[in-house]
Every structure is written in C-alpha cells, then in structure tokens.
Amino acid sequence: MVKKLFTLFFLIICVHVFAQKEYTKSYYENGTLKEEGWLENNHKIAYWKSYYDNGQLKSEGHYKHGLPINFWSFYRSNATLKKTGHYAKGKQNDWWSFYDTNGEIDYKCQFTANKKNGFCLIYKNGKVIKAAKYKAGIKINEWNTLKSFMKENKLSDLK
C-alpha cells in the first residue's frame, strides 16, 4: 500500500512539474506578436524572441530562471543589427559588439556584470582604428591609433 501511495504521489508531482512548462505568446494591442517563448513556473526559460509593433524582430536569446543567459542579438525596428553579446545570470559579460545604423561594426567592448571591464575596440570601415581600456566601468587608458595600442598590448590580451 505504501509503495502504491508513493508511486501515485510521484506521478502527481511529475505531472504538476511538467504541466508548468508552456510555450507562450503575447501580442500588442494592434494584434502584432510582441514576444514568444517558454515559461516554467511563470519564469522565462529557454529560447525567446521579442518583436517591435511593426513585426520586425527586436531581440532573441535564451533565459534561465527568468534571466537572460548566453548569446543574445538585438535589432533595430528597420531590421538592422544593433548589438550582440553574452549574458551570465542576467548581466552583460564577455565581448559585446555594437553596430551602426547600417549594420556595420561600430565598436566591441568587454563587460563584466553590466560594466565595461577590459578593452573596447573602435572600428571604422570594418577596421580597428582606436582602443580603450576600462576597469569597472571607468576608462583607464586610451590609444588613438591601432599602432599605439599594439606597442603596449598583444592580441592575446583581447581574449
């Protein structure tokens, strides 16, 4: 009898847990899709997409326990790439790339917990032209040419 009760209890718990995971969509007042993705216990999980009210993709990436994680992409309302980068526990970490209105790389920066922390590389016509170094969001050094940057740094410093 105890074994049957345990089995029944286990099955009820399993059904309850798995029933909490659902694919959901929300919409703007005009009927356009606003966002879509997975919810588990009312927290965003797994892959999500959000959209502008004109239907263009706004962002895409993964969640864990309601916080963004791993690689994300963000777009402008005209569909050009705005920025890409990594999250860890809901905060910007590692390299983030930022793009101009034409979708060309503008600059890349290293982040730790939402603050610039490491190098930022500034681009023009797809080539690095300047660099800066940050610590906890504060600029601590700047190089106005790639040549001056390379005199003091190695490419391996950019990991």
Describe the structure.
- With 159 residues, this protein is an alpha+beta fold.
- The chain has two domains: 59 residues, no CATH class; 67 residues.
- The mean pLDDT is 90.
- Helix content is 16%, strand content 57%.
- It contains two helices and eleven strands, in the order αβββββββββββα.
- It is flat and about 65 Å long.
- An eleven-stranded antiparallel beta sheet has the order 1-2-3-4-5-6-7-8-9-10-11.
Could you list some keywords that capture this structure?
159 residues, flat, alpha+beta, 2 domains, 2 helices
In short:
The protein is α+β, with helices and mostly antiparallel strands and 159 residues long. The protein has helices spanning 2-19, 146-152; strands at residues 21-27, 33-40, 43-51, 57-64, 67-75, 81-88, 91-99, 105-112, 115-124, 127-135, 138-143.
